[in-house]
Amino acid sequence: MIGNMDWPAFWSPLALSLKVALLSSVASMALGAAAARWMTRRSFKGKTLLETVFMLPLVLPPTVVGFLLLVGLGRRSWIGRFAEWLFSAPIVFSWWAAVIAAVVVSFPLVYQTMKAGFSSVDRGLEDAARSAGANERQVFAYITLPLAYRSFLTAYILGFARGFGEFGATLMIAGNIPGKTQTTPTAIYLAVDAGNATMAWAWTLSMIAVSFLLLLFARTKND
Predict the structure, then answer these.
(1) Is the dihedral of CA 93, 94, 95, 99 positive or negative?
(2) What pLDDT score was predicted for residue 1?
(3) Angle CA(5)–CA(8)–CA(9) in degrees, nearest 5?
(4) What's the pTM value of the predicted model, to 2 decimals?
(5) Closest to 154 measured CA to CA, from 79, 214, 83
């Protein structure tokens, strides 16, 4: 069965999923860390409401998230029209759309993990560094980051794994175009629908292996 498998067709969605997960995890990490840092250091009216908005993609059905992205980034929206004018191509039904979907659905996990990490850092140590003449960049690099690095690592791995396994929102906004926007989860769906159990199992086992290794690495580093 393995010898008769179409290897180019097998590797294409897997490679795209890894690329989408890598880019989306970096983006969600940057956005999540910045938002978490800001939210843990400030109090303002409407903070709870804003944080609820941040967490919405975690509880909404992925198809709802995908539909909202489709409306917000489609050709009828000003964002979609501007992006098409800027890049000479629409956002929707492109692999970049898969990246955007992965960023949106992974952001709550990254944000919540980073918020816990920043909250665990003793502000007294940060203030002591500032009083000794350290600027904000130095405080973050030499005080905050070393104390919260486990949260950074966990947040990144969770963001990567969530982006790697994203299905519903990706299918809505990026579609399932083989060789272009077909990620591993959507390829599994298509293989099952077509009765191709060999490819479905191969992709499934690959995703299990990648996810298992990521979680094992996170557990090893955090113990």
Answers:
(1) negative
(2) 46
(3) 70
(4) 0.89
(5) 214
CB of 164 closer than 8 Å to CB of 212: no
pLDDT tier, 126 (very low <50, low <70, confident <90, very high otherwise): confident
Whether the Cβ atoms of residue 107 and residue 31 lie closer than 8 Å to each other: yes
- How far apart CA 105 and CA 69 sit, in angstroms, is 11
Helix (H, G, I), strand (E, B) or coil at 166: coil
Q: How far apart are the C-alpha atoms of 191 and 200, rounded to whole Å?
A: 5
CA distance 54 to 72: 17
Query: Considering only CA atoms, which of 119, 117, 122, 143 is closest in space to residue 132?
Result: 143
Q: Determine the number of helices (DSSP H) and then strands (DSSP E) in the chain.
A: 11, 0
Tokens representing 44 are: 């303002």
Residue 136 tokens read as 């904000």
DSSP type of residue 5: S
- Give the pLDDT band (50/70/90) at residue 141: confident
pLDDT value, residue 43 = 84
Query: At residue 23, what are phi and psi to the nearest 5 degrees?
Result: -70, -45
Q: In the block, which residue shows the tokens 């409401």? A: 49
- Look at phi and psi of residue 133 and say left if phi exceeds 0, alpha if psi is from -120 to 50, else beta: left
d(CA 115, CA 62): 23
